[in-house]
Amino acid sequence: MIFLFGLLGVVLLWMAQSKGYFILPHTEKKSPIVNFKTVLIVFAIYLGMTMLVAPILIHFIKSTYALFSLVPMPVAVLGWVQLFTLVAIFLLFYLYSKTEGPAFFKKIWKDRSVPHSKPIIIDVLMGIMTWFISFPLVIVIGQLADLLLFYFFGFENYEQVAVRYLKTTLNSPPMLVIALFTILLAAPVIEEFLFRGCLQTFFKRYFSPRGAILLSAFCFSIFHFAPSQGIGNISLVASLFVFALFLGFIYERQASLFASIGLHIMFNTVSTCRVLFFPE
User: Is residue 26 pLDDT above 70, yes or no?
Assistant: First the structure.
C-alpha cells in the first residue's frame, strides 16, 4: 500500500512540476499587513474561547443539572456549547476586523491587487485539485511514521483525537450534525484564517514566502499535538506538516485564503467519509 501511494505521489508531483505548478508567481515586495499584535489577538480569541470559556460553560451547565435535575446533563448539550463557541469565535474575529478597517482582513482573504489574481471559484478549484497532488504524499508520510513507531517502539492501534471525537457523536444526531459542521467547514475556515491568513502573512515580514510556508506549517502541525495520543503524535505531526506545506503553498500561489480553505475542506471531507463509511 505504501509503495502504491508512494508511486502515485511521485507521478503526480512530477506531472505538477512539469506543468510549472510549483512555481510561486513573482510579486513585488510589499510590507505585510499583519503584525504581531494581530497574531496575538486572533490566537487569544480562539484559545480563550476553546480552552477557557467553553470548559467553564460546560462546567456551569453540569453543575446546574446536578443541582436542579435528577438526570445527568444530556450529551447533546456539549454539541450546542461547541456550536456557541464557534459562532462566538467568528463574531469576535469579525468585530476585531472592524477595528482594523474594512480593507484589512479583505486583503488576507483575497489579495486582488496582485497581477495573477483569479476569481474565487478558481481559487477554490485549485485548492481541491491540490488535494489530488498532496493526498498520496500525506498518506505515505503518515504510514511510514506508523511503521517506524511500530518497529522501534512496538506502538500501534492508536486513534487520532479527531477520529475519536467523530465516533462519539454517531449515536447522537444533533451532535453528529454539529461535529460535521465543525470538521467540514468551521475548522478549515478558522484554522486557515489563523495559520495561513494571519501567521503565515506575519512571518513574511521577516522571511521569504517559502520560509513563511515552512514556519506556518510547523506551527500548524505542532498545534495539533494531542497528549492523549502519546508517541502517536509523531505520525500525526509528520503527516500534518506535509499537508500544511501544501496549504501554505496554495495560499501563496493564489494569494487567496479560499484556495487553502478549499484544500482543507476537501482533505477533511475525505477523511470524514473514511471514518463514517469505511471504519476499520
Answer: no
Please state, as a whole number, how many other Cβ atoms lie within 10 Å of the Cβ of residue 36: 9
Average pLDDT along the chain: 88
Distance CA(138)–CA(66), nearest Å, equals: 45
Q: How far apart are CA 77 and CA 7, in angstroms?
A: 46
Helix 233-254 crosses helix 209-223 at what angle (to 10 degrees)?
Answer: 140
Q: Which residue is listed with cell 486557515?
A: 192
Q: Distance between CA atoms of 87 and 82, rounded to whole angstroms?
A: 9
Alpha carbon distance 273, 279 (integer Å):
9
CB 137 within 8 A of CB 242: yes
The reported pLDDT for the residue numbered 182 is 93
Task: Please tell me the predicted confidence (pLDDT) of residue 27.
Answer: 60
Give the residue, 186 or 9, on which the prediction is more confident.
186
Q: Taking the CA atoms of the chain, what radius of gyration do you get in angstroms?
A: 20
What's the DSSP call for residue 115?
A: T
Phi, psi of 256 (to 5 degrees): -150, 130
Burial of 220 (0-12, 13-18, 19+ CB in 10 A): buried
